[in-house]
Design a protein that fits this description.
The structure holds two protein chains of two kinds. Chain A is mainly α. Chain A has 26 helices and six strands. In chain A, helix 9 runs parallel beside helix 14, helix 18 runs parallel beside helix 20 and helix 24 packs across helix 25. Chain B is 62% helix and 6% strand. Classes of the chains: A mainly alpha, B mainly alpha. The interface between A and B is large, with 65 and 54 residues. Strand 6 of chain A pairs parallel with strand 4 of chain B. Chain B: Component of the eukaryotic translation initiation factor 3 (eIF-3) complex.
């Protein structure tokens, strides 16, 4: 389903993700193409009985609001059947499904959402422009259905499904933006098709924002969170719609989606701001979907890192990585989520490594150990030595796939190899690397300062430039670096309150200093060895051994 | 004037209306007003850049003012936030490119070089439109000096502040509660009170080991 689609996506182009234009009579007329597709499929696809039964059960369960039944069908049966019958082929078309379940508008919309999600993940060959449009329109139908009603729609879906629905909505937007941006591989008609005014709204960033904001507003989720954060009962302000689980959770997930969307556009301020009143490290009634928690922390941590709030970034990453370490077994059974979660976990370890190089500080032992075991230390060592390409490589591996907010202008003289998508990532990388370059001297200075409690300025200047006679100019340059050191290590750190943007200036890094006359006075953080964990582990081992010995029968 | 504007703008920045291109004129005027009246509203300024991003047309003049205003709010990282909303081409366009260069110097604490570059006629013209620009930068300089030094040479401080005259220097020293002492030095603060070696030792409370102790019988 969803998993791995980030990676598959790029590859699928080369495997001919849309090359059907080369051998299919593409008319350019959406309606005709749609019919053509129908004929193609109904020709050979007959729905197996197990699948028919599944569709019937699911439709029934949804209509009767049997949450556990829906959950089971969605989380277990659907992936199983996908593997069995539709591993690399699409699920049955809407028309065929209609014959099975009858004219059930809402169910068909939900079914199509699953259908397209599967298409994106497993059937890149069938994912043509029209399919992308149809999927978008299906989302619009769903939103109209949910948001347009006078009373809350009588529908319950598992939160897992709701999260994946919203997550997929953003993913497909991201995917479309990439698709549109890869101009070089598009035919002229296709380019015109994507930029024509009638299709302008499809997968348009303003539509996305509008949709998500509408879900947020309809559910009153912001007010609910505010009341919840201050200890009150969110239902008291939720209103008719917001009390309904469907709206409440869609509202909450839309906030996370906005966090992601703003991040992809490089707007880190709005990204953090949209999560006001959500304390992401606290367990709450909204925080029971692991994939959502992990995604939230990834984007929040990333935004903090870009804002040079390293302490906050490190806190965010450590906390979620610890959670992942502890609950690892939970994700293993559901493989379709696993890939996504594992990828994001690895990305977060990279980001954490970067943050720890720029802002060394104590972190939890088990995270430290993971960094050591998985060879992050080598990367960190290179970065500490000022290897800029290592910084860049880590950043580009770990950053989200950034987006351009508007379609590239097509004035006719576009270079053939134009790939506008990379521009967005390139720009964010540049901004980050500018910061790294400004801080380039700091690790070296830190490594010297660590050895002393006091150190004369001129002596450090000599260390920095051992080959030549130390001059007043060297001292002046060093003084600048020292000022820079202090400036960069004093950052806003969140302390309390409901907004992640707030905080106070703190020097959270492990090494600090001040200059008196021409003497540097250094304050380090000394961490004593920890024995508690060691002894507890030994005690448990001993217990186990003892237990075994007792159970041996002679 | 700025205050009433701040409220109007804050109101429509709440919801989807922040992306409404019809608001751009108001927001741009607000930027100009901030420059003239030495006020500052990061969120509104980011909204302008975001609208430029979405609509792919932008006024370089306004963008420059937003960027320079962001510099006045150092040590906060507003400038980075603004930069992230531009793109590669814009960053290389003059005079945005030069402003980024200025930011680079400030972020690296190359204050003397910064003041030198500010002498450039074009730069002077740009910055003169931001009321209180130089003093805002001096505030940032004082912030960095304040956290770094226990005592600093008077001559060095003068340079860092952009070669100010004696009276101006006295003004800044007084403002931050610093003191002129012998040997042409300035006493900043007793840093050893804030900057101390920390020892982190393991503390194990009884509750966290009670369970395991109970089982060891």
């Amino acid at each position: 389903m969803y998993s791995g689609s980030y990676d598959d996506y790029e590859g699928s182009y080369d495997r001919g993700g849309y090359n059907e234009y080369d051998y299919e009579p593409h008319s350019g007329d959406p309606q005709a193409d749609l019919e053509y597709d129908h004929r193609m499929h109904s020709g050979y696809a007959r729905i197996p009985d197990t699948v028919k039964n599944f569709l019937g059960f699911l439709c029934n369960a949804i209509n009767e609001g049997q949450l556990f039944e829906i959950q089971n069908l969605y989380e277990n049966t659907f992936p199983k059947l996908t593997e069995q019958f539709y591993d690399k082929t699409p699920w049955p078309e809407e028309a065929e499904v209609r014959q099975v379940v009858g004219e059930d508008q809402l169910f068909l919309i939900l079914y199509k959402e699953l259908y397209f999600r599967h298409l994106y993940a497993r059937c890149p060959n069938n994912l043509n422009l029209q399919a992308r449009y149809n999927s978008f329109n299906n989302y619009c139908d769903l939103l109209n259905c949910i948001l347009g009603a006078d009373r809350p729609v009588n529908l319950v879906l598992p939160d897992q499904w709701l999260w994946e629905l919203i997550d997929e909505f953003i993913y497909q937007f991201q995917s479309f933006s990439q698709y549109r941006a890869r101009l070089a591989k598009r035919s002229r008609e296709e380019i015109e098709e994507t930029t024509s005014s009638k299709n302008y709204k499809i997968w348009n960033v303003l539509c996305m924002l509008n949709a998500l904001h509408s879900l947020v507003d309809k559910s009153n989720i912001k007010k609910q969170l505010e009341v919840y954060a201050s200890g009150g009962d969110p239902d008291s302000v939720a209103g008719e719609f917001g009390r309904h689980s469907l709206y409440k959770m869609l509202g909450y997930f839309s906030l996370v989606a906005l966090l992601r969307l703003h991040s992809l556009l490089g707007d880190y301020y709005q990204a953090i701001k949209v999560l006001e009143n959500i304390e992401i490290h606290k367990k709450s009634q909204y925080s029971h979907i692991p994939a959502c928690q992990i995604s939230t922390s990834y984007y929040v941590g990333f935004a903090y890192m870009m804002m040079r709030r390293y302490s906050d970034a490190i806190r965010t990453f450590s906390s979620i990585l610890l959670y992942i370490q502890r609950t690892k077994q939970l994700f293993q059974s559901r493989t379709y989520q696993n890939d996504q979660i594992n990828k994001q976990t690895e990305q977060m370890y990279h980001l954490l490594a970067i943050c720890l190089v720029l802002h060394p500080q104590c972190i939890d032992d088990s995270i430290q150990q993971h960094l050591r075991e998985k060879n992050y230390h080598e990367k960190m060592f290179k970065m500490q030595c000022g290897d800029l390409s290592e910084f860049e490589a880590c950043f580009q591996f770990a950053c989200p796939k950034f987006l351009l907010a508007h379609p590239p202008s097509l004035t006719g003289n576009t270079p053939a190899e134009a790939d506008y998508m990379k521009d967005a990532t390139k720009h964010q990388t540049e901004v980050f690397m500018d910061e790294v370059i400004q801080q380039k001297m700091l690790p070296t200075i830190r490594s010297y300062l660590k050895l002393y409690t006091t150190l004369p300025l001129y002596k450090l200047a000599t260390f920095m430039n051992p080959s030549s006679q130390t001059t007043e100019k060297d001292c002046a340059a060093l003084r600048t670096h020292l000022l820079c050191f202090k400036h960069k290590m004093k950052n806003v750190v969140w302390t309390k309150g409901t907004s992640g943007l707030e905080g106070s200036f703190q020097s959270g890094s492990e090494l600090d200093f001040y200059i008196d006359h021409d003497m540097i006075h250094i304050a380090d953080t000394k961490v004593a060895n920890r024995y508690g964990d060691f002894f507890i582990r030994k005690i448990l081992k001993f217990e186990e051994l003892n237990h075994k010995l007792h159970s041996i029968k002679l | 004037m700025v205050e009433s504007m701040r409220q109007t703008v804050a109101a429509f920045l709440q919801g989807v209306d922040r992306y409404n291109p019809n608001n751009i004129r108001d927001l741009e005027n607000y930027v100009i007003l901030q420059s003239q009246e030495n006020a500052y509203d990061l969120e509104a300024n980011l909204a302008v850049l975001k609208l430029y991003q979405f609509n792919d047309n932008y006024k370089i003049d306004i963008t420059c003012q937003v960027l320079l205003k962001a510099l006045t709010n150092l040590p906060h990282t507003d400038f980075i936030l603004c930069k992230c909303l531009l793109n590669h081409e814009k960053c290389n366009e003059s005079p945005i490119k030069e402003i980024i260069n200025l930011a680079d110097l400030l972020e690296s604490c190359e204050f003397q070089l910064f003041w030198q570059l500010l002498q450039d006629r074009k730069m002077q013209e740009l910055c003169s439109r931001i009321v209180g620009f130089q003093d805002s930068i001096r505030k940032f300089v004082c912030h960095v000096v304040g956290i770094t030094f226990q005592t600093i040479q008077k001559s060095l401080l003068t340079q860092l502040l952009g070669g100010v005259d004696d009276n101006t220097l006295k003004h800044w020293v007084q403002k931050y509660g610093w003191k002129e002492i012998e040997d042409d030095m300035i006493f900043i603060a007793n840093q050893d009170e804030n900057i101390k070696t920390k020892n982190i030792t393991e503390k194990i409370d009884f509750d966290s080991v009670a369970g395991i102790m109970a089982s060891c019988t």
